[in-house]
Task: structure prediction
Amino acid sequence: MWPFELEFMQRALVAGLAIGIAAPLVGTFLVQRNMALFGDGIGHAAFAGVGAGLLLDVWPVWSALVVAACGAVVVEWLRSHGRATSDLALALVFYSGLAAGSVMIGKSGSSQIGGDRYLFGSILTASWSDVRTVVALAAAIIVTVAIAGRALFAVVLDEESARVNGLPVDRLNLVLAALTAVTVVAAIDVVGTLLIAALMVLPVASSRLIARSFRATLVGAALVGALSVTSGLTVARRFDLAPGGTIVLCASAVFLVAIATRGVRLPPAAAEHTHEH
Result:
């Protein structure tokens, strides 16, 4: 049925739903840790990886994954070892990644339009091969959250208590950093490196308005993410708009509706009913 009767829209829907569900799951842990912009910083590191891939003539998705993972590990190491605060570490990766990506894309001879695809996404031109890659990465994220979710929750809620209780805090922090990197790379074709952080955070913000537990926040954020993708693709098709930006605007609209209907109070969802975990 319209607007998904055409094959390119079907490919966009499958890839978009995979990321719309997976990205908010990771974002929920980042928001609980007050690191909502972590995905934004890693997104810029991934852009440097895209530039490196174009320069070295390798598939940019894989080079972006390597560089994003390295950037996530660096930020986590700086944060955990007290060498820099989280915002300063993110600023280092943020600006360096964007600048390095711009320089390498220019040096590779790729057009500005080619670079814009990775900045803002190009979901309507994704092939079935691209879709399979996105779905595989999203599935890996969902499975990891399902397996390690309780331990990750304990770490982001109270790192010191988790350490006292014998949890491998350092390794779990690295797992969360790696999940963020994989999420960013998986979303390159959907919303681009500049907008992925919004898709990781806005559905979580909406879910926290109504959820009364961390588990409910996770489920609600995934549902809002899926709704944002579906409605965003529909609106983009109807009015001939950029799909990546429209998806994010729909996520923003859901958040504004949630505020209007529930008020501006943000309940500390993760702090309540911790006995569920």
Observations:
- The longest helix spans residues 128-157.
- Confidence is low (pLDDT under 50) at residues 269-275.
- The chain is about 75% helix and 0% strand.
- The CA atoms of residues 150 and 201 lie 20 Å apart.
